[in-house]
Amino acid sequence: MTAFNETSNPVVRKGVTASVRLRHAAGLHARPAVKMTKLAKRFAAKISMANSAEGSWIDAKSIVKVMAAKAPRDSLLLFHAEGADAQAAVDALVALVEQDFPDDV
After folding, report:
1. What is the pLDDT of residues 84-102, one digit of tens each?
2. Catalytic residues, which ones?
3. 78: helix, coil or strand?
4. Minimal CA–CA distance to 19: which of 4, 41, 35, 7?
């Protein structure tokens, strides 16, 4: 996990941002995308995701947008959250990806 602060992130955003390498063999296909969006929806924070540092930010709670991102294996996923539980949301999403989308989530 790489945490970004406002001085290291080229686009200054308030809130919490972190990145994680996607190691899932098939990339971000249907099953991991569903797990990710379900987990994101557990938090009140506004959560965005990008699949590269240069990529556009999408709503991490939208299954359609997350699946449309088509992030391949070894992509750098970035999460950004704003709100009272932003840190917990980002930490949980990073852990989900690091653990390769376990079935108990």
Report:
1. 999 999 999 999 999 999 9
2. 29
3. strand
4. 4
The C-alpha angle with vertex 45 and arms to 43 and 47, in degrees rounded to 5, equals 95
Largest pairwise CA distance in the chain:
37
The answer to whether 79 and 47 are in contact (CB under 8 A) is yes
Walk me through the domains of the chain, giving residue ranges and CATH numbers: 2-98 (3.30.1340.10)
* pTM score: 0.85
- Per-residue pLDDT tens over the stretch 38-55: 999 999 999 999 998 887
Q: What is the model's pLDDT at position 4?
A: 45
Of 65, 56, 60, 37, the residue nearest 47 (C-alpha): 60
Dihedral angle over CA of 77, 16, 6, 12, nearest 10: 70
Q: Comparing 70 with 3, which gets the higher pLDDT? A: 70
